[in-house]
Amino acid sequence: MSDLPDRLPYRLLTGPDDRSFCEKVSAALLDGYELYGAPALAVDVDAGTVVCAQAVVLPRDTPRL
Predict the structure, then answer these.
(1) What is the pLDDT of residue 64?
(2) Where are the domains of the chain?
(3) Rounded to two decimals, what is the model's pTM?
């Protein structure tokens, strides 16, 4: 059994630069997370894809379970 809480205080969301990534970030915001810093983008020139990353955190007073 893990000692980790159900909701981690920090998460790094990643995914392709498309609607599904925006939905993932939006769901985290609705779950009580807040954006932490600016999003980051990485370009795979060979594959022609863009990958996004966004850190989110729970406010310190948010229950983790």
Answers:
(1) 58
(2) 10-57
(3) 0.81
